[in-house]
Amino acid sequence: MNQEIISTLLKKLRVVNPLIHNITNVVVTNFTANGLLSLGASPVMAYAAEEVADMAKIAGALVLNIGTLNSTVVESMIIAGKSANEHGVPVIFDPVGAGATSYRTETAKKMMNEVKISVLRGNAAEIANVAGYQWEIKGVDAGHSNGNTVELAILTAKKLNTVVVITGKDDVISDGETTYVVHNGHPLLTKVTGTGCLLTSVIGAFAAIEKDFVLASTAALVYYGIVAEIAADKTAHEGPGSFQIELLNQLALVSNDEIVKYGNVEKIEQV
Ligand code: ATP
Ligand code: TZP
Ligand code: MG
Ligand code: MG
Q: Nearest to residue 45, comparing CAs of 76, 14, 15?
């Protein structure tokens, strides 16, 4: 992928300043709102069944996240998702903890059935469990498995008819036909809660301005991974707290030149 296109998308995003409607979890709400603001998007968190249809239809993207789900919020997510679908607003879904409890797994599957999802983003265990494949999970964190995440992404994208993003040390993006692996990122991202959830909302912001959702997701992953690399470098010898703050800083400060220089993305040739 030509990295100039990623920097062009980032510039466009900052001009458009898309409204991103998030129905997310209580752990990450503030971090997600601040991360989207730093990036150059406009966050709103709205949960009431009475208003979510109206909010979703005026948004650039709707982000659904089941991290601290309950039946009331799940009902709101489905109302919001259907409204977004009717109005051509992309819906990005983070099935946090799918596989950890049967309630999460069944809710994630219900969301895939009732709402047309543009991008499904999770760790390997979550994605495998949503698709009905075997994979270990511990709470909301990915467990260990020797599975092939490229194969899992391609199979899941075909099976669920959506763009799939599987994150971890390397990230895989696939619609079943076109597949990329992004090598950017930093292990410190696993030491701050909500970095996966914020990433899902960042994908939402890119999807709001680019309707090729494989391209939008890949651009989001490269950008976010480079932001993390720079933040880790600037806070070397400090701890995850400093890294978290610097991540918010670098979401705003990363330059287009750095995106072009440090982007590390590989196209997978499928047979
Ligand atoms: P989990 O709960 O399993 O940590 P998550 O939803 O928090 O999952 P991650 O898979 O941690 O999401 O992905 C969030 C970001 O962290 C992505 O940009 C990913 O590339 C990055 N990341 C995760 N693990 C590593 C790692 N070991 N090295 C580099 N980057 C990583
Ligand atoms: N518990 C329920 S949601 C949540 C926790 C700790 C946040 C998960 O965030 P992420 O981005 O998946 O690490
Ligand atoms: Mg994490
Ligand atoms: Mg997560």
A: 76
| Residue 80 lies in domain | 3-266
Question: What's the CATH code of the domain at 237?
Answer: 3.40.1190.20
Residue 271 lies in a domain: no
Nearest CA to ligand 1 atom 14: 196
DSSP state of 178: S
Q: What is the ipTM of this complex?
A: 0.98
Indicate whether 208 belongs to any domain.
yes
- 150-173 tens-digit pLDDT: 999 999 999 999 999 999 999 999
> Which pLDDT does position 45 carry in this prediction?
98
Closest ligand to residue 191's CA: 3
> From residue 55, how far is each of 37, 64, 72, 158, 261 by CA, in Å?
18, 13, 17, 30, 38
Query: Pocket around ligand 2: residues whose beta carbon is below 6 Å from it?
Result: 25, 27-28, 67-68, 96, 140, 193-197
Q: Distance (Å, rounded) from C-alpha 42 to C-alpha 15?
A: 11
Kindly indicate the confidence band of residue 73, based on its pLDDT and cuts at 50, 70 and 90.
very high
In a domain, 111, yes or no: yes
Position 85 in a domain: yes
Average pLDDT over residues 235-241: 96
Number of domains in the chain: 1
